[in-house]
């Protein structure tokens, strides 16, 4: 999730990173969506994450790891969707 410096609206994005059959690194932006929930709670975040995964036909068992920031609300959102997740260090 991030907030625009221009219009102060919040967005949530979903990117994918994987290896091809030839072990080439691949990546893509799968979704970027305006985060319209009133509050950035873990529950609201997990609801949107589940929606984005569903829209992109990505079942939870196909996710190796969800990389997220260290915010408590993001941690809770990732925990709520029950996938392996870790905090990035950047």
Mean pLDDT, rounded to whole units?
Answer: 92
β-strand number: 5
Query: What percentage of residues falls in helices of 4 or more residues?
Result: 25-40%
Strand order of the largest sheet: 1-2-3
Strand content: 25-35%
| Structural class computed from helices and strand pairing | alpha+beta
Biggest sheet record = 3 strands, antiparallel
Termini gap: 15 Å
**Which value, in Å, is the CA radius of gyration?**
14 Å
Low-confidence stretches: none
Shape summary: globular
- The run of helices and strands is EEEHEHE
Count, helices: 2
Folded structure, characterized:
This protein is of the alpha+beta class and 90 residues long. The protein is 26% helix and 31% strand. The protein contains 2 helices and 5 strands; from the N terminus they run βββαβαβ. It has a 3-stranded antiparallel beta sheet with strand order 1-2-3, with helices on one face. A two-stranded parallel sheet has the order 4-5. α1 crosses α2. The protein is globular. The model has no long low-confidence stretch (mean pLDDT 92).
């Amino acid at each position: 999730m991030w907030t625009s410096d221009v219009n102060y609206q919040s967005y949530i994005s979903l990117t994918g990173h994987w290896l091809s059959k030839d072990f080439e690194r691949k990546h893509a932006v799968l979704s970027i969506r305006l985060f319209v929930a009133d509050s950035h709670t873990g529950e609201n975040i997990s609801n949107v994450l589940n929606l984005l995964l569903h829209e992109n036909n990505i079942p939870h068992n196909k996710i190796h790891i969800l990389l997220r920031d260290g915010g408590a609300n993001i941690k809770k959102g990732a925990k709520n969707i029950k996938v392996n997740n870790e905090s990035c260090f950047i």
